[in-house]
């Protein structure tokens, strides 16, 4: 190239070199000419990945890859879950209602086992193994019940026989009474009694006798069941406690153990207080029967002591039995018995019971009376049985758990 010829223009380094424009139409690639062919490798790749995932799941022992979760906001799923919940709740309610009597017996046996456990622990401190200590306590309870029955059977048989022997003389004395004869003739009492005695009334009377027999045998069965369950609970008491403590987190187990042991101690103290009140009632009845001159004073004292252990109705039941025996002796003696038991029950309910519970369970007088009334009104006999221990447990939890947490806030 000579100096006179013009030089071509230099292209800057940053500017790309323009590609030559081919002559003729632009060529079409195979991918553009056949769009369906590019989907085939992608579908094959997805299928391969799915097969690999299933293979890995099978190799790990699972049943394939999990599917997408259910939509918990689905109206059908919500309604179905709610309906199943209602059915399960109703089934639980029916089960509890049908097993209510058995559950009550289990609860009473467990309560008695908790109350008798301090005595078992005292025997263990004296060197007896737990099995032997439980056997001693069980024999003591059985002997106590047998002693009460033996004390009651002779006077019951004697009084029943005297009543049967005295019925003809009693009817004859009524017939000789002019006032009674006049009332019988004026109101046609004899004809009404004869018309009332028919097949229907005899059937009802027999039904009442059968029902009474069922009640007696049912009561015996319930008492034996409670005794057997109480013995089993006393024998396995430590294992039951340890199983319950194992359900508590380890960080709180020691504190829960201490609080629970204190509550169980208060239940035992309540049982000792209840026994003390029952013994005091029996001694008072024995002294009263000796002063008045009632027959079988020791048997009547045993009746009052045993009945006084039954919450809500026990003291009244024992008072009715002794008052009827007093009325059988004479009208004056019966009235004196009624007045005595009315006065004594008021003293026991509002003076002796609160003071004994305040000393044994550390519950105030107002709390003891209020708890007993509320327990009877809400849950009957069971409520009266557990009212005082429940108040003591609530006071302990408030003092040791609730109040400290309030102080730290």
TrEMBL record:
Q: What is its main location?
A: membrane
Member of which family? Belongs to the autoinducer-2 exporter (AI-2E) (TC 2.A.86) family.
Give the region (Disordered) as residue ranges.
1-51
What name appears for this protein in its UniProt entry? AI-2E family transporter
| Cell compartments where the protein resides | Membrane
Q: Which domain of life is it from?
A: Bacteria
The annotated regions of Pro residues compositional bias extend over: 15-28
- What are the entry keywords? Membrane, Transmembrane, Transmembrane helix
Q: Which residue spans traverse the membrane?
A: 76-93, 99-120, 132-153, 215-237, 258-280, 286-307, 319-347, 367-398
Basic and acidic residues bias: where?
Answer: 34-51
The record ties this protein, via InterPro entries, to: AI-2E-like
A Pfam family assignment: AI-2E_transport
UniProt topology in membrane: Multi-pass membrane protein
